[in-house]
Records
---
Amino acid sequence: METNNFLKRDHFKLGTFSTNCSGGMTVSKLPNRWKADWESNLKLAKMMDVAGMDFMLPIARWIGYGGETDFHGYVLETVTWATALLANTQNMTIFATVQTACNHPVVVAKQIATMAQISNERVGLNIVAGWNKPEYDALGQNLADDHETRYGYAQEWYDIIKRIWTEDQPFNFDGKYFKTTRTYGNPKPKTMPPIYNAAGSGLGREFAARNADFLFTPAIDLERSKEELKELKQQALDQAGRKVGVLTFSHVICRPTEAEAKEVWQSLQDNADWAAVDNLIRLQFAHAHSFPHDLMNLIRERFAAGHGGFPLVGTPEQVADGITQLHETGFGGTTLSFFDYAEEFPYFRDNVLPILEARGIRKKFA
C-alpha cells in the first residue's frame, strides 16, 4: 500500500481531542462548558477543515467519572461520530478510537475500510488496549489485570485487521485469543490508515513500537520529555525497525493579554469538579502508566483544566512559544483542547496559526 496523505504531510501536526465527550478535556462545573453535541462537533469540524488542521481525535467512553457533572458521562460513539464528520469534511483526517476488548477486529476492519471509501482515505484508527476497569464492569466484561494479556490480545486483534486490509485471499487465524476460518474483507483501504496508540507501560510501548505511526505520551516536564522521546524513538528502531512519531496533548487558553488568560485558568481551578478529577486520577494511576507518579500535585491541577495536558496559556505569541517548545523537545505534534472548542478555535486559528507558519513549524494549508 502507498503511504497515507496524513503521514506525507511533514510538519508539526495539530488536532483536537475529546470533542465527542461532555466537557471535552476540562473537568469543570461551569454551566457553559463544552456540550459535545452533534451540532457543536459539526460546526467545529467544518472550521478546522478549512483552516488546515490535521485531525480530530475522539475518546471512547461508556460511562463517566462521577462527581457533580459525571464528567464524560455524555459521549458520542466514535465510529459513527467519525463517519458522519468524514462525510461532512474535505481535507482533515478523523480518527475512530476503538477499544480492542469490546470491538471484534473483523468488524472494525470493515468499518474502517468503509470509512476510507467515504472519505477518500482520510480515516485513522486509535487503538486502545483497555485500562478503565469500571467501563468494562459496565459492559459485563472482565478486563485483564496484567498488561501482558491486554497487549497480547491487542496484538492478535490488530494482526487480523492488517491481514484483512493487505491480503487478497481468505486466511485462517490460529492465535491464543482469536481463532478464525476463511477470514477476508472487501473493500479494503487504498492506503494504510494512520495508527495512533497511547501507552505508558513497557509492554504497551512495545506494542506501539511495532504497530503505531504515532505514540501519545504526556508532556509534564519538557526536560524529562526530551530523554523519553529519544528512548521511545530508538526503541521503535531497535525492536521493530520502524520510525514512530510521538505526540502529546495540550490545553489552550489563548487571550489578548496574559492576565486575561491566567484569569480563565484560575476560574477553571475555582470551578473544577474535584470529585470527578480525583476519581479520574485514581483510575489512571491504578490501571494506566501514562503519568509520572512523582508529579502528582502538578498533575492534579492540570487534570482540572485539561485532563493532564500541557498548558498553553497566554497571548497568541505565548501560546505559539509553548507549541514551539513542544516541537523543539521532539514531539511530532499535539492535540489541542479548549474550554469551548467552537467558540475559542477561531481566535487560535486567526492569531496563533500564522505565527507557527511564519516560524516554519506549520506549512500553510493549500
---
Amino acid sequence: MKKIFAASIMGLMLLAGATAFAQKATVAVGHINSTELLQQMPELENVKTELQKLQKELEESLETMQVEYNQKLDEYQTKKSTWSDLIISTKEQELVQFGERIQAFQESASQRMSAKQQELMQPIQEKAVKAIGDVAAEKGLLYVIDDAVAIFISPDAVDVMPDVKKKLGIN
C-alpha cells in the first residue's frame, strides 16, 4: 500500500513538473522596433506633408507679425524725439503688448503643431498596433516587446518585424 501511495505521489509530481515545463515552453515572446516600423509606413509621408503645410502657414503668420512689430519699433525709434511723454509711453506699451502677442502666438503654434502631429499619427499607430497584434496571434505569441524599451532580447525571441511589414504591405 505504501509503495502504491509513494508511486502515485511520484507520478503526480512528475506530471506536475511536466505540466509546469510545458506551460513554460509555451510562453513565446516576440520583439519589434516600433519606431522603425512607423518610419517605414507609407502613411507617414502624408503626415509629414500635412505638418510641413501647417508649419509653413504658422511661420508665414509669425513673419507677418514680426514685420509689423519691426515697423512699429522703427517708427518709435525715429519719431520718439518728436513725441510727447504720453505718446512715448503709449507706444512703448503697444510694443510690449505686441511682443507678448508674438510670444503667445509662438507658444500656441507649437502646441498646435504637437496636437496636429498626434492627431495625424494616431490612426497610423493604431494600424501598426493592430498588425503587431494580428501577427502575434498568428504566431501564438503572448507578448511582443518594443526593442526600444527591452533591456535584453533573447535570441529565442521572435522578430515579428518581417511579418508585420508583410501584413502592412511594406517592402
---
Amino acid sequence: MNEKHVILVVDDNPTNLKLLEIILRKEYKVFTTTDSVKAIEICNSERIDLILLDIMMPEIDGYDVCKSLKEYEKTKNIPIIFVTAKNEIEDEKKGLNLGAVDYIAKPISSAIILARVRNHIKLHLYQEHLEDLVSQRTKQLRVGYIDTVYRLTLASEYKDEETGAHIKRISYYTRELSQQMGMDGDFCDSIFYASPMHDIGKIAILDSILLKNGPLGDAEWKTMKTHAEIGAKILEGSESPLLQMAVDIAKCHHERWDGSGYPRGLRGEESPITSRIMNIADQYDALRSKRPYKPSFDHEKAVSIITKGDGRTMPYHFDPEILSAFKKSVNIFADIFEAQKDF
C-alpha cells in the first residue's frame, strides 16, 4: 500500500482546522496547528507534501510564514495554498508573488479543496520526477564529459614520458591541497578534474625534444616552454567552468611566486591560485618520477627539495600559503604516490 501524502493545515480558528482535517483525512495524513511558529517547526521536522495556510494569523501572518519557508532549502519547494477570507485581487496577487501555488477564498467548499489539493500534489510529484530525470541526465553527461577529457589528456601524455598514473596523481594532489587550504567543495571537485589537462599542449612538441635523453639545448628549451600557451589555446573558448579553470592551469602552472617562471614571468598573485596549486603538485610528482634526464627521488628527498631547496628548486618559488598546505599534507602525498604508482 502506498504511503499517504502529508498535508499541513495552518489556521488560527480551531473550527476551520477541524473541518479541513475531516475533508482531507480519508486521502491524506494531516498535521494541524493554530500557531505560525509551530507551522514552520513542523515543516523543518516532518516530510510535508503540501500546506494549506491561512493569512490572517496572530504573531506571524501567513504571508510571512510563506516568505520564511521559501528562504530555506528544505522547505522552499513545498507547495503552499492560501485558504483565507482575504478575497481581494491584490491579496491574491501578493500571495502568488510570494511563491504560493494557489489561493482559495473562504468559505471553503470540500469539493474545491480536494480538487485543488489533488491537482497540486500531482503537479508537485511530476515536477520532482522531472527534476530527478534532469539530475540523472546531467550526472550522466558530466561523467561522460569527464571521461572524454581524461582520455584526450591521456592521449597527449603518450607523447611524453608521463603516464596515466601521473594524471591520476595530479588530480588527488591538487584536491588535497585545495581541501587543506579550506576551499569549498565545488572548487575541490573542479580542480580534481581540470588539473590533469595541465600539459595537454605537449601534444604539439616534437618527440625528439620531449623524449630527449639528456638536458635540452637553448632552442629546444625555448620550444618546450611553448607547451603552456599551446595548451591554453587548445582549451580556451569553452563556456564550461571546468575548461576555463583548465585554461588557467595549462597557461600558468610553470609560473613561480618570485616571478622566475614561464611563459610570462608572473609574480605572486598575478598567477591564478589554481595554477599555483598545480605548480607545487606537479613539482612533487616530477621529483618522485623517473625522467630521461634524472632518476626518481624518494618521498623524503622530494619534500626536502620543495621545502628547503636544492638550488634549482627553492621554497620561494611557491605561494607561501600553498607551501604551508603542502607541508601539512606530505604524508597524504606519499600515500597518493604509492596508491597510484606506475607499473
